[in-house]
Amino acid sequence: MRALRAVLVVVLAGTVFVQALMVWTLVSGNDPEDGSLPLTPLRVLTILGIGTIQAAVICVWRLVTMVRRGTVFSHAAFRYVDVIIGAIVAAALVWFAVTALNAPGQRDDPGVTVIMGAIGVAILGVALIVLVLRMLLAQAVARDVEAAQMQAELDEVI
What is each CA distance from 119 to 44, 56, 88, 96, 110, in whole angstroms? Predict the structure, then answer.
């Protein structure tokens, strides 16, 4: 648990640092855009993409806390898993937007755009995997409730 939390802290601190630099570059007007790529929209998309990572990291932190307390098999965990799924889908949408911004510059080599699109589909695949894990959590919560009811009935019989 400590190692995971350490990794989460490093990831969160790193993303906040990069996000702050991106915001500072946009606000200060020191954007060295040379015209080859629309850097301002890419920076905005980067800030949004980093926000999706931060949301997922915070939710994983909360789930780790629930695991440590032994309360992860409850309905409260669904809220965090749902936010993680939403963050992954949002990250995929941001990636597709980056792909669309990058596509005009790749007219001579459209393979890059196809690969970037495939990466976006893979990100959506991760969201589907987390959705399956959510369904497994739902089954575990249902079994836990059922076991508690059976234990209560058994206690009454004894």
Answer: 20, 19, 13, 9, 14
Lowest mean pLDDT across 55-59, 93-97, 99-103, 123-127: 99-103
Residue 59, burial from CB neighbour count under 10 angstroms (0-12, 13-18, 19+): buried
- Which of 100, 9, 87 has its CA nearest to residue 49? 87
CA atoms within 13 A on the CB side of 52: 20
In the chain, where do the E strands start and end? none
CA 17 to chain centre: 18
Residues in Cβ contact with 25 at an 8 Å cutoff, skipping those fewer than 6 apart: 31, 43
pLDDT in tens, 75-119: 999 999 999 999 999 999 999 999 999 888 787 888 999 999 999
State the angle between helix axes of 76-102 and 39-69 in degrees (0 to 180), rounded to the nearest 10: 160
